[in-house]
Amino acid sequence: MLCAAGADPVIFALEDLHSADDRSRFDGIPVQLGRTLGPSQIGYSPDLGRKLAAADIDLLHLHGIWMATSHLAERWAAVTRRPYVISPHGMLDPWITQRGQAKKAIARLGYEHRSWRRANLFHALTRAEAADIQRETGNDAIAVIPNAVDAHLYDNEGRDSATARIVYLGRIHPKKNIDGLIDAWQILVKQRGPAAPQLTIAGWGDPIHVAALQARIDLVLDSRLSFTGPVYGDAKRALIGSATALALPSHSEGLPMVILESWASGIPVAMSQHCNLPVGFTSGAAIDSGVDAHSIAAALAVLLDESGAARQRRRAAARDLATQCFSPQIVSEQWMAAYHRILERNS
């Protein structure tokens, strides 16, 4: 999006096992990788710091916090006196800040407080996240800009099939409430017997969380419940397009891309309010699942049992949101305006 809008981005990132594969996603945009020293979850990389210091860039945009990359970014901004933007990507949500408090206290004292004070602008994906940022950092220079989805990449025909399918796609992590979703699906199995929907879970995560999920599925012993692992590209789009509904009953989110991708495909969503997309509820593209197994089951039942005409209205609402509120053109215009304002104030 930024290239199309006339910007010249350069990506700085920590090197990991997937760096070679990920590089191809950036379509020729320069990528500078830094080797890490010590635990990967800390992300300490003097190598990346040197590459950042040698780069000739007008503005630095940090994605994510709680890692040593915050220190590198803050030091760059202090030395160059050039603008510095932070996107926490949901990492200041209370559900997140209340976990691992000792490690986060060390990060705050070690580098995050300095980084937050140095930032010219914070980026929030939603108004709820903007409130979290202001509360945690005391900084009220916040731009609310959503993620974008290119609806042209997704099939929006809305295929019906004899077998209903609920799809979960995303990170395998307790905050996603996948156990609650499985509990809800088992309620539907008891209620509907052979007519119960399939539940397909796809995604990636820490090995311990993936192993726990697989162990639970193995105990259920029902072929209608499956875990496919991570899916990408055409396979991901095909899985979303095969769904009767997507489910995301999370305890905590920033702004989930998978919901935007589902709407681009014309697929309605059962999601919790923690997904921070209330426009989905008001438009009819989504239904509130809550986070309790019974409320999730009830929400899924509504989407499964709707008439053909009602389903078509939801599909149309979903597609309209993707094209009218979250299109790359609309979002890139907001980003370029924000970047230009910062650069002009700093000149």
UniProtKB/TrEMBL annotation:
Regions that span the bilayer: none
Every Glycosyltransferase subfamily 4-like N-terminal domain range: 2-147
InterPro entries per the UniProt record, alphabetical: Glyco_trans_4-like_N (IPR028098), Glycosyltransferase_grp1 (IPR050194)
Pfam families, per the entry: Glyco_trans_1_4, Glyco_trans_4_4
Domain of life: Bacteria
Protein name per Swiss-Prot or TrEMBL: Glycosyltransferase
Species of provenance: Sphingomonas insulae
